[in-house]
């Protein structure tokens, strides 16, 4: 009696054009969320992405799923930029700079507030993206402090607050003309983080826990 061989299941991979469509949708959604807020019609996003409405709904069954994917994507891109900077020359402060400037380019300060009470803030994908981001920033800041590059009286929360406040106003505001000032002001802030410190900061370093309790 012969033993039947197990059936080899074929793994279905997304086609290249399907992946490109998904990326176009996410990019178009990011830009339109920044310009008009999270309630922008999905058919307008489809039109800007150059795909049909059915393609949008095939990739994202509802608005929550699309907003969540946009936020997770920009967080992941920002983390990747900092990791690439570290891999290039192992300079922790340069990695911190890359993180801050990429966060501004990705419009994180306009997008992250969209995850409000109307969305599932505790979705596993969002939690994982936040943990990766917070963990990377904490590690890079600690390494920069150990190298004598970063003043010791700042915390991860200080960086997150300043980055959000300086990068751009909330989504939907008529503020695109101010974009040309963003990187200039962020660099001024980053230069103020360098050690040795020229002044003593009031209060204590702001932690992530401080931000969650605020």
UniProtKB/TrEMBL annotation:
Segments forming domain HTH tetR-type: 19-78
Name by which UniProt lists this protein: Helix-turn-helix domain-containing protein
Location of the DNA-binding region in this protein: 41-60
Pfam families xrefs: TetR_C_43, TetR_N
UniProt keyword annotations, A-Z: DNA-binding, Transcription, Transcription regulation
Superkingdom of origin: Bacteria
PROSITE patterns: HTH_TETR_2
